[in-house]
Amino acid sequence: MKKIVITGSSGRIGRALYWQLSQEYRVKGVDISASSSTNIINDIRDYESLPRIFEGADTIFHSAALHAPHVDLFSEKEFYDINVNATEKICKAAIECGVSHIVFTSTTALYGYANQEKDKAAWVNEQTIPKPKTIYHKTKLEAENVLKNYSSENLSINVIRMSRCFPEPAQTMAVYRLHRGVDYRDVAKAHILASQLRKKKDFDIYIVSGTTPFLKSDCVQLLEDPETIIRERYPQIAREFDLRGWKFPGSIDRVYDSTYCQKTLGWQPEKGPLDVFKQFDDKDFEVLPPS
C-alpha cells in the first residue's frame, strides 16, 4: 500500500484529503495542531524531522500554510518562514527521500490586483499574470516559484490554485459557486486527480473553481447588472432567490475559469450552486445563515 503524506492535515483541505485517501493508502497526516486527521504533530519548519516523516512516501500533499485571516496576526517573517522557506525544506526532504510527486495547495487570491478591471469583470485563467496584494498572496506565489525550481523528471509538482471554499452566508456562497467558489471536497478531489497524472509535465498549475455558466462576453454586464445575467444563464438560482426573498449581488468583479483543470485532469465539481440551498435547508454548518 502506497504511503501518502499530507501537511496541514488538521486544516480544511488537509482533512478532506485525509478522509478521501485513507481508505486506499497508508496516509500520514502532519500538522502543528492536533486533530482526528493528524497522526504526527510536527512543525514543517523543522527540516531535521522531515526526512523521517517522508521516508517511503510516494506523494506529498502540501497544504500547510498561513492564510488570509492570519495577515494581521503574524509577521511578514513568519509568513515567509512558513509559506516559502518551509516549502523549500519540504522539496529538499522530498528529493532526499525519493518522493516522486508533490501536490501543492495554492490560492486564486494571489491574482490580487489582476482581479480588478475598470469597466468589466476580470476573466481569470492560468495565463492571467498574478498581481499580489498582501503578504499572503506574495508568499503563496513565491512558494509556487520555489516548487517550480525544484520540479524535475524525478519530482513532478502540481499546483492547485483553489477558489473560495470556506463557510459563508448562503446567498453569497450560492452566487460564488457561479464564478469564484467551490466546495472543499471538490478541491480535495482535484488534488487527488493531479497526483494521479504522472509525467505529462514536471510542473503544472490548475485553477480549481466551480464550473461557471458565464461567458467572456458577459463580463461588462456582470460588473454592472449581474442579476439579469444570472437569470439568463442559471434560472434555477434565480428561482431559489425569488422564493427565499434573497437579494442578488450588485456587482460581480471576477470569473475564475477552471476549463484547463477540467480538461487536463478530468475533474468535475460534484457540489454546484444548487447544493448550497440543500445544505442550507438541511442546516449544514458549512453554510451560514443569510446576512
- Intertermini distance: 47 Å
CATH topology grouping? Rossmann fold
Show unreliable segments.
none
CATH class: Alpha Beta
Order of helices and strands: EHEEHEHEEHEEHHEHHHEHHE
CATH superfamily: NAD(P)-binding Rossmann-like Domain
Number of helices: 11
The CATH architecture classification is 3-Layer(aba) Sandwich
**Major sheet attributes:** 7 strands, parallel
- Helix fraction? 25-40%
The share of residues in extended strands comes to 15-25%
Write up what this structure looks like.
The protein has 291 residues and is of the alpha/beta class. The chain has one domain (3-279): Rossmann fold (3-Layer(aba) Sandwich). The protein is 40% helix and 17% strand. It has a 7-stranded parallel β-sheet, with helices on both faces. The protein has a two-stranded parallel ribbon with strand order 6-10. The longest helix is centred in the first third of the chain and has 22 residues, at 76-97. The chain starts with a strand and ends with a strand.
Concise summary:
The chain is an alpha/beta fold.
Highlighted features:
single chain; 291 residues; alpha/beta; Rossmann fold; seven-stranded parallel beta sheet; 11 helices; 11 strands; 40% helix; globular
Helices and strands, with pairings:
Elements: E1 3-7, H1 12-21, E2 26-31, E3 40-41, H2 50-54, E4 57-62, H3 76-97, E5 101-107, E6 122-124, H4 135-150, E7 156-162, E8 168-169, H5 170-179, H6 184-196, E9 203-208, H7 219-224, H8 226-233, H9 235-244, E10 254-256, H10 259-265, H11 273-281, E11 287-288
Helix pairs in contact: 1-6, 3-4, 5-11, 8-9
